[in-house]
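This is your field. Pick holes in the following sequence-structure pair:
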Amino acid sequence: MARAELDKQPTDVRRMFDAVARRYDVTNDVLSLGQDRRWRRDVIAAVDPQPGERVLDLAAGTGTSSQPFADRGAAVVPCDFSLGMLRVGKRARPHLPFTAGDGTRLPFADATFDAVTISFGLRNIVDPAAGLAELLRVTRPGGRLVVCEFSHPTWAPFRTVYIEYLMKALPPIARAVSSSPDAYVYLAESIRAWPDQQRLAELVAAAGWQAPEWRNLSGGIVALHRATR
């Protein structure tokens, strides 16, 4: 198991997600105390997909985050680099066009999508800056980006409690519900090492996106970053 350094190895991360695929959605629901459902609703509202629009859902996993786009009439493409995740997703949602792809080398033409989104996956891309630039490439001019990612709680006392939860409480809970609990040690460390809201906005801007902004969810446990092409 690779540690959660920002120079993570793609093969290790892919293997980790293959291992957790079977119970990934259930585990996330338990570990987030059900808040992941609200966060997905917030992503949909931020993207505001219109009928007929083409939407890329990168790091889509099993497609739980993709289905609401299809329900709104958008042509959504769930994309992930974990074949294990894609297999689980295709069994559950055979109508969605699951696509295998590396976030730094997406298998799509320039200016393909009206909107691109990635939820809880940017920090797992080996080079997040390259991932943001690649998302820019496949977005049409005027299109929009929404990044939903774990972040830094804004209230210092709560931030301390949150870090304690990540590093001490999360692994035992994961052992009880996950198909590969050791993977959640990596996930906890990757969350702790991830840039804060301002630094991520700067990374988005440096990749070429315009007017990046963010909104904190759940006290800053999660942040929604938005920008346009």
